Amino acid sequence: MAEKKELTAKENKLLRQMYWRSFTLYSAVTPAKQGASGFEYTMLPFINEFYSDEEEKKQAMVRHNSYFNSNLALVPFIMGVTASMEKENSETENFNTDSINAIKTSLMGPLAGIGDSVFWGVLKAIAAGVAIGLAKSGNILAPIVFLLIFNVPVQIIRWYSGKMGYTLGSTYISQLYENGLINILTKAASTIGLMMVGAMTSQMVKLKIKWNMVVAGKKVLETQNVLDQIFVGLLPLVITLACFYLIKKKNVSLNTLIFAIIIISVLASLVGIV
Q1: What is the pTM of this model?
Q2: pLDDT tens for residues 204-249?
Q3: Is the distance from CB of 151 to CB of 126 less than 8 angstroms?
Q4: Is 93 helix (H, G, I), strand (E, B) or coil?
Q5: Rounded distance, CA 15 to CA 165, Å?
Q6: d(C-alpha 140, C-alpha 240), whole Å
Q7: Is 212 in contact with 223 (CB distance < 8 Å)?
Q8: CA nearest 58: which of 49, 66, 48, 68?
Q9: Fewest beta carbons within 10 Å, which of 7, 13, 216, 268?
């Protein structure tokens, strides 16, 4: 097992910057990329530190301007791992840069599920229960107690998980490369990441057909039920794949695509199709 590396003063400074910048993750959310701009902003101190070549900096910035969405309490761990991989990329020749986004994407789904369950589902309920009890008795400190019970554990975990992610990454990623396991890990991470993105697509893309066949004033065919019997979520899947094809193969800009979808949706709604 590789020995744990001690962090330098410079690395600790970068981790502190990462911690504070991570609060901006969802300050500029877009439907297509969610917290991508916030993630990129958080990575900038590492990018500027690890890369001296301007072209490499641009490539790293483009790399992190991709879809990202996870739980805020655990996202520093992903950022720490990602930062350590950027460090390894700057030091290792022929580093597989695809592995960086593959690992990042594979982590964001599972950690979002864990974080939402533990912090939103459990910790927030406990904090609210204590605060409500105090509020009923007339204690004016109830809201402060709620904020402390919820935020103190969250911030402790945010700091130490970020540090742990960076330390684990810098310790083991080089070893994975030496053992030839990084390609296997990248493939597995990519597969998991695609599964998570596909699952999120089925939840986030919604379209139901309202048009039904009516004969003599009587409804004889419910179009949406027929489509669901063929394949549940068929239309959202078709729309998603069509958008991917237009962006990837036809170089249609995202803004143009969004504008077209809005126009088509409004017209279809006016005529009662959807």
Answers
A1: 0.66
A2: 777 778 777 666 666 667 777 888 888 777 888 888 888 888 888 8
A3: no
A4: coil
A5: 10
A6: 50
A7: yes
A8: 48
A9: 216
